[in-house]
Amino acid sequence: MVLQQSSAAGGAGMFPGVAACRPGPRPAATAPMMAKQEREADDEHEEEQRQAANAEELRRGPWTVDEDLTLINYIADHGEGRWNALARAAGLKRTGKSCRLRWLNYLRPDLKRGDFTADEQLLILDLHSRWGNRWSKIAAHLPGRTDNEIKNYWRTRVQKHAKQLNCDVNSKRFKDAMRFLWMPRLAERAAAQHQHHRQPSPSLTPCIMGMPTAAPSSSSGLMMLDTTVSNSNSNSSSCSPSSAVTSSSSCSNLTSESAHDDGARHAAAAAEPILTAPADDDYWGAATTMQQQQNDHYDFWSTASALQHLCTAGAADHHFQHQVAADHDLTGWVQGFSDGGILSGSSSDNLWSLDDIWRMQ
DNA sequence: AATTGGCGCAACCGCGACTCC
DNA sequence: GGGAGTCGCGGTTGCGCCAAT
């Protein structure tokens, strides 16, 4: 275990959040209210004294290397659980809550550090599109990753992309951007990575879900949306059945990971299948079913088809583009694509080009 | 070299759910 | 049944780093 020096860098005296806990300035009291307010003031004073006493006893802020070692050694000897009792027994001047957080988010030996892989990013985007901000639920499907890590990824990277697009991260427009631009490119990158390492794709769940894939040959910068996934069980290069199986195995990983997790809810979440989880030997049929489930929300495939036409029709056919835009509420996109956006490969201020999306990775 | 602003991430908080007595 | 203690989750904060100016 390599303990990062930064964990000790802050040291004592850095107590984020303390100011927020302080009571604000009290408004002037009227006479009839005085007695009650004086009692409340006394109570408040006692509370402040109690908090001050606690503050002397309990440390907050960044963890030191010594504290980390103490916690690691204690858990190695006694295991997790009963965090408040653990904190006291280990001699740590921390709340149980703080110990739990430090262990789960930083010290756990099975944690995976470093940047998210393309596979993991795909999975996050896909799961978030279905579950929203259910970070722990999403994390349950990414072995070695914490909900905090995923939450931070979303807030920093994904929301940054939404900002670039000048739209809300929960808007349909941004979701379209993710689904039709970002995710296919991630899938492409993931496939390339696996090909480079000559490994089967480990967890391309979005492909299983019927996500359109980007054609590998996009020398022009244009993206072809492959809509054949839904009605074919042929072996697509980036969406092979093996990837489906390994995705399923990723879930079983989680189940075992959650075995040492106390929370029944967490375990249940880990064991929960992704939508209507198909048997391993029928992923492609199930993909169609899942796609139909998604169609309940919006017309995925007609939109994909429209975008495909957009990309292939070229900038010249403005009439066609505006017709499609009107049909699919993609006016902004068409504008962006045709006015020096995706079709020309150059960047624009408010809308992504493919190059922009990629640079933002 | 100094300053500034943005970003990433660890840690905190509040709250609801759960468990135990 | 209900109160106290605990746990887990999602949201927020603020420090440190680093690139741009």
From TrEMBL:
Keywords: DNA-binding, Nucleus, Repeat, Transcription, Transcription regulation. It is found in: Nucleus. Pfam families: Myb_DNA-binding (PF00249). Residues 55-107, 108-158 form the Myb-like domain. PROSITE patterns: HTH_MYB (PS51294), MYB_LIKE (PS50090). InterPro entries: EOBI/EOBII-like_plant, Homeodomain-like_sf, Myb_dom, SANT/Myb. Transmembrane segments: none annotated. One of its GO terms (molecular function) is DNA-binding transcription factor activity. Residues 227-257 have a biased composition (Low complexity). This is Uncharacterized protein.
